[in-house]
Amino acid sequence: ELKQELTRTLSTDNPRLPQTIVRYSFTEQAYKIVDDMDQTAIHLTLNGFLIHKDSDEGRRQSIRSSTESDKASDEKEETPVEDSAQTTEEAEVKEEEPTEDAEGEGEGEGEGEEEAEAEAEAEGEETAEAADAAEEEEPPAPKESEKKVANQFNFIERGTATLINALREKGNQTDPAPFVVYSANVNQWDIYDAYVEELKRKEKEKEKEKAKPQAVKKEDKKLGRKLSYVDAQHIDALSNVAKAAKIAERMVNLNTFDDIAQDFKYFEDASDEFRGQKGTLLPLWKFQYEKTKKLAVTAISWNPKYKDLFAVGYGSYDFMKQSHGMLLLYTLKNPSFPEYAFSSESGIMSVDFNSHHPHLLAAGFYDGNVAIYNLKRPASQPSYKSGAKSGKHTEPVWQVKWQKDDMENNANFFSVSSDGRIVSWTLVKNELVHVDVIKLSAGTTMEGPEGLQLQMLGCGTSFDFHKKIDYLFLVGTEEGKIYKCSKNYSSQFLDVFEAHHMAVDSVSWSPYHLKAFISCSSDWTVKIWDHTIKTPMFVYDLGTAVADVAWAPYSSTVFAAVTIDGMAYVFDLYINKLEPLCTQLVVTKKKNKTTHIQFNPAYPVVVVGDEQGLIVCLKLSPNLRKKPK
């Protein structure tokens, strides 16, 4: 309570003034509330005893003071008379003392005048010469009183009135805007000619666009740098102010969410000291977009260059409720609105940023297509997209992963789908070229009509490439098996792990340990494996289906998982090999499931997505981000 701040505003208005005083206005023939009430409140009044110099009393006092000054000059020349001195003293005292009643004032003035006359007579009797001199001096006496020193208590003499500034007028005369009367006749063949010209122009533009990328490639080899083309014609008015508007929007958002930004940067949960080894997740920003409220978060990927930027794919995991999809890019600097937004006809199931070219973003769709979005030239449609002719998958693409550029410096990525194919896509001369790397066979055959032996294909749901060994990768399937594969062998697997009893939702190599990988499944378990051993090293039962699992970038022993009941778990094997350090409810609404979790590569935060299209950013408390020795 002591720290609470109470703001009180002082104003010049009197609060006790009646607000509803009404007077009759004759001009409007109605009663009107009086607005301009006198706001002054008088706290102290004193009756002064200053006398106006032009009043009768003031004149008398001025005459008296002038006569006294004359006497004083005479006394210096001659010996003073005691009686006269006493009388003058009495007169002075009576002048100084303010009289209480008007009658007393009158008497005092009478006496003073009589005494003054008596003194003058006494002086006249003493010396005739002095009397003559006094007579000569008497006529100019009033003049002297006019020249007397100005009364310092007479405030009217002071320059108190302020100057009133003279009014000035300023005006400009402008020329009227020029106008021209224009008229023309239009007939049908003119219109037809105009359409034909427009079609020719569009065809020329298309030809130019087709020719441009090849020209770029040639110059690429010579200069070793990329050249971008800008069409100056199609820049609209908004794009000129877009950058300024974006900066202003970010500033407004920083002011709005200032307390969250302060928590993100500086808040360290002090209560961790009293929790032993346990920790907590502090909710920070929430990212939500109006058009994605009914879509689920299907993929999250952080940008490798801009640590505050992340891409989110939206779609639906429900086979019966498939609709459109969206790809949004958010930054932590602006939680209220996405930086980029792309919509697609089919739901987006997976996204991944290219680590060498951070502006390239690969996406996999529910209809089996894959696409590449170029953020340097954002358009409503992806820059490159597969099609039915160019080897698209026949089932949803559950995961896409970029690989290092090939020998000819062409960007390439891999995709995994339920149709059992793992496909490598390479960007060659402005189009996507596909190569089937491996086909997952379930190892069982089914007897078809007329005794045909049909081979069953395994349904890939997730995969991950080894961080150091380029050719090695893992594939998780719907049956619960994990295959260890190599890019060099297209027909056989290096190893098969009987990992789970249900679909493998996520599989991921450890970023620090070359042999270890982690997997999670809908059979409620998270397992940590050594790829040289067929049995898991750690098994954690989380009590409900596990949607996603992710390794922490700052420690080899920390990982996090989310379950479909809205809980987030953070484990640290270095501290506790049996139980999670943090178990926290992330999603508040009922019937809402968490779908994905990702660690930020630089900051101590995680982002969690759910089925309602909401993304929550959470900060890890100090106990959850201890670095091992």
From TrEMBL:
<feature type="repeat" description="WD">
    <location>
        <begin position="497"/>
        <end position="530"/>
    </location>
</feature>
<dbReference type="GO" id="GO:0003341">
    <property type="term" value="P:cilium movement"/>
</dbReference>
<dbReference type="GO" id="GO:0007368">
    <property type="term" value="P:determination of left/right symmetry"/>
</dbReference>
<comment type="similarity">
    <text>Belongs to the dynein intermediate chain family.</text>
</comment>
<dbReference type="GO" id="GO:0005874">
    <property type="term" value="C:microtubule"/>
</dbReference>
<dbReference type="Pfam" id="PF00400">
    <property type="entry name" value="WD40"/>
</dbReference>
<dbReference type="GO" id="GO:0045504">
    <property type="term" value="F:dynein heavy chain binding"/>
</dbReference>
<feature type="compositionally biased region" description="Acidic residues">
    <location>
        <begin position="89"/>
        <end position="139"/>
    </location>
</feature>
<keyword id="KW-0243">Dynein</keyword>
<dbReference type="GO" id="GO:0036158">
    <property type="term" value="P:outer dynein arm assembly"/>
</dbReference>
<keyword id="KW-0493">Microtubule</keyword>
<comment type="function">
    <text>Part of the dynein complex of respiratory cilia.</text>
</comment>
<dbReference type="InterPro" id="IPR015943">
    <property type="entry name" value="WD40/YVTN_repeat-like_dom_sf"/>
</dbReference>
<dbReference type="GO" id="GO:0045503">
    <property type="term" value="F:dynein light chain binding"/>
</dbReference>
<comment type="subunit">
    <text>Consists of at least two heavy chains and a number of intermediate and light chains. Interacts with BICD2. Interacts with CFAP45 and CFAP52. Interacts with CFAP53.</text>
</comment>
<keyword id="KW-0963">Cytoplasm</keyword>
<dbReference type="GO" id="GO:0036157">
    <property type="term" value="C:outer dynein arm"/>
</dbReference>
<feature type="region of interest" description="Disordered">
    <location>
        <begin position="57"/>
        <end position="148"/>
    </location>
</feature>
<keyword id="KW-0505">Motor protein</keyword>
<protein>
    <recommendedName>
        <fullName>Dynein axonemal intermediate chain 1</fullName>
    </recommendedName>
</protein>
<keyword id="KW-0206">Cytoskeleton</keyword>
<dbReference type="InterPro" id="IPR001680">
    <property type="entry name" value="WD40_rpt"/>
</dbReference>
<keyword id="KW-0677">Repeat</keyword>
<keyword id="KW-0853">WD repeat</keyword>
<dbReference type="InterPro" id="IPR036322">
    <property type="entry name" value="WD40_repeat_dom_sf"/>
</dbReference>
<keyword id="KW-0966">Cell projection</keyword>
<dbReference type="InterPro" id="IPR050687">
    <property type="entry name" value="Dynein_IC"/>
</dbReference>
